[in-house]
Amino acid sequence: MYLRIFAGLIVVALSLSGQNYDVVLANGRVMDPESGLDAIRYVGIRGKQIAAISETPLNGREVVDVRGLVVAPGFIDLHSHGQDDENYHFKAHDGVTTALELEIGVSPVAPWYASREGKALINFGASSGHVPAKMAVMHDTGEFLPRDHAVHDIATDEQKLSIFNAVRQGLDDGAIGIGFGIAYVPTTAREEILRLFQLGADRRLPVFVHMRGNKGLPEDGAIPSVQELIADSAVSGVSLHIVHITSSGGKQVQNCLNMIEGARKHGMDVTTEMYPYTASATRIESALYDEGWQERTGITYQQLQWVPTGERLTAETFAKYRKQGGQLISHGISEDTVRIGLASPLVMIASDGHMVNGKGHPRSAGTFSRVLGKYVREEHALSLMEALRKMSLMPAQRLEVAVPTMRNKGRIKVGADADIVVFDPGRVIDKATFENAAQYSEGIENLMVGGVFVLRDAKFVEGMYPGVGLRTK
What we know:
- It is a single chain.
- The protein is α/β, with parallel strands linked by helices.
- The chain has helices at 2-17, 85-92, 110-114, 130-137, 149-152, 157-172, 190-203, 222-236, 245-249, 253-265, 293-297, 315-324, 335-343, 363-378, 384-399, and strands spanning 20-31, 38-46, 49-54, 59-65, 70-73, 75-77, 96-106, 123-129, 178-181, 207-210, 240-242, 270-274, 280-283, 304-306, 327-330, 347-349, 420-423, 444-449, 452-456, 459-460.
């Protein structure tokens, strides 16, 4: 009996050590921001999940030697306006496995998801957007962002109800929370915002907010805007995410972060994000460039760059392009502001990217690689593990209450989704510039989405569209 039991144990042990995996990533420097693991390991992948992490070699149908490369959780971009094949390709080369449109959001939600199923290189998802709902109800003529009725008209009680119902329907259809661009609809009543915060709280879903912005002096505009959001969050109980704190906070970014930290210390669920650039971007016809924009922002014409041509603007060209409409870059964020954001443990990385026919802000293509190359490797502004935490684990944790599947993303551990980036820490860098944004980052060698390679040896694997839509249900 002893021998049979002993023999049986030997057989079991042999069968475990000899398991075959679909893919094995061998000899890589595995970095997991949740556990703190930073060591050479073998990662076995079966189906869509990580099935083993081993100090010793594993057998697989395909063994990929990633010696000298970092194996990390795929990056999760919470703020990606570009939601099409062009943008997903740039995201993949930047190490992103999940890109979400959570600030402006979409409306209606159901057809937006349906149009991308089975056609996406990476995972996707969206919030139910207040701005697009308001644009539809108020018959605004803007493209993506409002330019007339939703900007300047005061909504009637009937219109407010229609907007509320459209946002609520989006939540019924599985949207990831509620998106707000309050600065783009400045006539929106505070009561309208608060009521939608209460809807988010009732559904236990977060809100993602571009705050109201400067209304008075440039140096104090950010503070009352953050105060409004924290107050509404405290009253409603909703989970609050404030987008791009460095560009919205500007010179007051440290004070803004102090307020967020204080709210968190007192039990509130408040988070924020940034992109690692000294310039912002939006549409020139939007409310951000209504009369008085120079006084509100402290920006001059010469600091504005017209995306289609790369030219800096004058009063004459500003007036011309504002009538026309299009993307505009504003060089108005200091390097000190960027560094304050990167140094804060509160701040995630998110791109706010949107490439259109090869034109856009370089953040659309290079956000995550820029952090890894410029700010981690070259300038030592933060550690590699901290950067990975800001780009993978923190975004996953921000969403995991609303979207339970996020508990299996942003980590390298057994049972986690095989959304994995493999990059060269000595070479990874952004290549996109303000003059030519449509350049893939370098150093992202392999990218897996749900256990499927979409990048191999820095080249796209043709015909693979493993991305799935992430919803609350």
